[in-house]
Amino acid sequence: MKTMISVEQQAIAAKKAAKTLSLLSENEKNEALNTLADHIEKNVKRILEANEADLHKGREKGFDEAYMDRLALSESRVLELAKGLREVSRLDDPTGDILSEWTLENGLHVQQVRVPLGVIGMIYEARPNVTADAAGLALKSGNAIVLKGGSSSINSNRAIVEVLHEALRETKIPAEAVQFIDSTDRAAAQQLFTMKEHIDVLIPRGGAKLISAVVSNATVPVLETGTGNCHLYIDKEADLDKALKIIVNAKTDRPAVCNAAETLIIHEDWLKENSSAIAEMFAAHSITVHGDEKAAENLPDVIPANEQDWSDEYLSLDIAIKVVSSLDEALEHIERYGTKHSEAIITENKDTAHQFMAIADAAALYHNASTRFTDGSALGFGAEIGISTQKLHARGPMGLPALTTVKYLMHGTGQTR
Amino acid sequence: MKTMISVEQQAIAAKKAAKTLSLLSENEKNEALNTLADHIEKNVKRILEANEADLHKGREKGFDEAYMDRLALSESRVLELAKGLREVSRLDDPTGDILSEWTLENGLHVQQVRVPLGVIGMIYEARPNVTADAAGLALKSGNAIVLKGGSSSINSNRAIVEVLHEALRETKIPAEAVQFIDSTDRAAAQQLFTMKEHIDVLIPRGGAKLISAVVSNATVPVLETGTGNCHLYIDKEADLDKALKIIVNAKTDRPAVCNAAETLIIHEDWLKENSSAIAEMFAAHSITVHGDEKAAENLPDVIPANEQDWSDEYLSLDIAIKVVSSLDEALEHIERYGTKHSEAIITENKDTAHQFMAIADAAALYHNASTRFTDGSALGFGAEIGISTQKLHARGPMGLPALTTVKYLMHGTGQTR
């Protein structure tokens, strides 16, 4: 019961702080972000000690290597948090931008102005870096933030927030603009789902399970960030060198991230012609191949693919292969199993590429390039708060403008209708 | 059970039609819209006969006058539907617009392009005009639409859709792009709430109850259109003439619409000085006044206001009066009871107006003008699909761009990361 009351009180305090914050100048916000960075740099040891407590618990619980890696901070990773805050201070502040303005015949002057959303609810899992990164992006765009991290990183998150609070007390931004739900209780997160009065948007960052729990149960609007079941379609007119290079990059550069490729869809004519080159590439990069019957007929060591191979992300050096006889068949497979994140076609035929990009329904569509570019910093947006796989509000990598809304401001001299 | 299967089949058919539609040119869509208008004009009698069946049922059920008015069509109202479709054909098609494009250092070319959302689910109440208006806006922006109207207008809606289908068969747009749920069963509407696979967005149009049922139960993203509990704040430095003119317009021009004013917040100093002018204006326009104690001290015939007077829309010639002693108190009242639709301040003090407009949180904020301008056609957007009172995706009157999303299209020559 104590937690229940306090989560709502925290959200109310965030909303109040958001009002003060929304009236600050860009300079005041930038100075504050640099003060946050200074304090992070001065407190590396303290943050690492807290992280060690999380790592110790994690080892006891027997978390796997990938999970422990997401959980772990190091001196350089903590310094990256400070660097990230300084980078955000240099991004353009989108708030206050006049997106359009005009005057009606009766003299009423209309402006459409970008303003902060208000209070952002951030629900995330292991990675403690989200604590500082999300706070920085929220504050720069004039929003307060309520942070609810995973229980496995609670000590790290708490230490980072303590440092941020100490720093904020030296700035014009009220410390209450960053709220930390200091609880490992799931009910605390669930309370945020329905606090429409105090929270303007929820952003879940983490695995498919977390995201789906938020989307299904929240009445607060959600910015859905995504799982990426990304496909590469190798057309019958694909160039072999480009295909090999792109497959290797999209699959092996960072297999655990959402813009990595999970399924290859290969035109059967092309596969027959290039099966030995493809097989060599898989072997050279230790890629485990799951596939349909036609894949098994043309390639060695193919594990029969089942429904889960088509629908789930591997996030590992596994890949699924679906062999098709037409572009339409490839598009149907993507429509059925894709998560609307990133899809690519490799072909030398521009018309085929155009058709693919017109029909496939995803945030990012690639012709002869790796899906790995679906990323705020790779595209030049600066830091991102996540990659949206939904169609409303923001789609693809979300920078600062995704954390804003608009107001119409109308100045008149007594106009009536 | 039959309905259950058929609603899903209709949504699947809509999704398939949306793909064909999304590849049509602006000209092909415009020609189709004009063909729809032609057919509406040729079938006025048929539509009016169907409407007469709904009106007959409505009279039997004893619906009130305002409701019957929303339900009723006339020759001129049907011809307005055709005129509306022709107007939509003349609006700019937002799809295909390149919102931004740039080339990365490695040569990867990035375009952010506007595309249709896909399939729109429209859930609405009495007004049969929504059937044609919403279909026109959806088709022009390349979207298929699934229409679920209220049971009281089902004959009118069915007749309009029959005419639209006959017309579509003469055009490049597949008739399946307009789906009509021919059922008075609420379960049919509820099925649409969770059809995330086939429906990209739900737009509820109607009363607060309908909208809240959709928002609370849908997992499909919702474009929330709004109830408008709009306030006029009469500051201590308000000009009397402007205040009177704006109050009369915002309250009496069309009391039943969402941008009409429902509550006056009046600074007590101003009220004391201008009470007789205000009282005369109320009497002259047959406005019934509900108010707090201070209002009753300064004005005649004030009915004591309760919580509901502050929180609900009257949609009639009733008005609530809250007397305050500061701008802050006015802003607190708006924050507590406002629906984030439209809020106005009447004052000659620009600083006070600026503060009001910076702090009040609503789609549209007015200084010395009537709230009645929050309307797509009044602001020059052309037809609107509704007025959004949410902060994500679209805020305020929603024209064609609100029915679109974006895709990033990346053209490369083998780029990897």
UniProtKB/TrEMBL annotation, chains A, B:
GO molecular function annotations of the record: glutamate-5-semialdehyde dehydrogenase activity; NADP binding
Metabolic or biological pathway, per its Swiss-Prot or TrEMBL entry: Amino-acid biosynthesis; L-proline biosynthesis; L-glutamate 5-semialdehyde from L-glutamate: step 2/2
GO cellular component, one term: cytoplasm
Entries under PROSITE patterns matching the protein: PROA
Location(s) in or outside the cell: Cytoplasm
Aldehyde dehydrogenase domain mapped to chain residues: 7-285
Known catalytic reactions: L-glutamate 5-semialdehyde + phosphate + NADP(+) = L-glutamyl 5-phosphate + NADPH + H(+)
Enzyme Commission number, as recorded: 1.2.1.41
HAMAP family per record: ProA (MF_00412)
NCBIfam families, sorted: PRK00197.1 (NF001221), proA (TIGR00407)
Family: Belongs to the gamma-glutamyl phosphate reductase family.
Stated name of the protein: Gamma-glutamyl phosphate reductase
Source organism phylogeny: Bacteria, Bacillati, Bacillota, Bacilli, Bacillales
Gene: proA
